[in-house]
């Protein structure tokens, strides 16, 4: 197995889930994930190793998704805010399928920056340092942004009790 195959097998699912969490469309996520790995193969020689390869792939995926939106003038479909919830932590609720769907809907309705930071932190399991690097910001910025996004999610959940 070549290094490229190993990278593909190791990170495909993570990249796909990240793009799917942004697009909420299986076909778009598949296309952009494939495009991400094609771009990564083309740019592999320019990868300097200053960041984790997963961070680099997520950055390519994020940029590819936004390029897709610009090209298709896609308007994000804001979905309904979920109904009743309790005060359990968001991370624990994601484990329950029904609660997970409710939280995904709320996350999908967040402003793009919050949505991406939450997705990278909770589903991509990236550190604040890695998230900050993706956005060209500090790890403190990533931490504060994640905190604010979680606060907004909790507010939306309480509104619908």
TrEMBL record:
UniProt organism field: Salimicrobium jeotgali
Residue ranges annotated for the RNA polymerase sigma-70 region domain, each copy included: 7-73
Keyword DNA damage in record: no
Domain RNA polymerase sigma factor 70 region 4 type intervals: 101-153
A Gene Ontology biological process term: DNA-templated transcription initiation
InterPro entries: RNA_pol_sigma-70-like, RNA_pol_sigma-70_dom, RNA_pol_sigma70_r2, RNA_pol_sigma70_r4_t2, RNA_pol_sigma_r2, RNA_pol_sigma_r3/r4-like, WH-like_DNA-bd_sf
Gene Ontology terms for molecular function: DNA binding; sigma factor activity
Keywords, comma-separated and alphabetical: DNA-binding, Sigma factor, Transcription, Transcription regulation
Protein name: ECF subfamily RNA polymerase sigma-24 factor
CDD domains assigned: Sigma70_r4
UniProt family annotation: Belongs to the sigma-70 factor family. ECF subfamily.
Coiled coil (UniProt feature): none
């Amino acid at each position: 197995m070549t290094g490229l195959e190993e990278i593909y097998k190791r990170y495909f699912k993570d990249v796909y889930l990240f793009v799917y969490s942004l697009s909420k469309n299986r076909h778009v996520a598949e296309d952009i994930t494939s495009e991400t790995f094609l771009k990564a193969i083309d740019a592999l020689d320019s990868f300097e190793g200053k960041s984790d390869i997963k961070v680099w792939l997520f950055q390519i995926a994020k940029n590819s998704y936004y390029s897709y939106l610009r090209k298709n003038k896609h308007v994000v479909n804001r979905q309904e805010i979920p109904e009743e919830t309790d005060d359990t932590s968001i991370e624990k609720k994601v484990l329950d399928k029904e609660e997970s769907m409710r939280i995904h809907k709320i996350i999908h309705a967040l402003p793009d920056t919050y949505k991406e930071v939450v997705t990278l932190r909770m589903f991509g399991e990236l550190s604040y340092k890695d998230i900050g690097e993706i956005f060209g910001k500090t790890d403190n910025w990533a931490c504060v942004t994640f905190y604010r996004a979680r606060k907004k999610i909790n507010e939306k959940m309480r509104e619908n009790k």
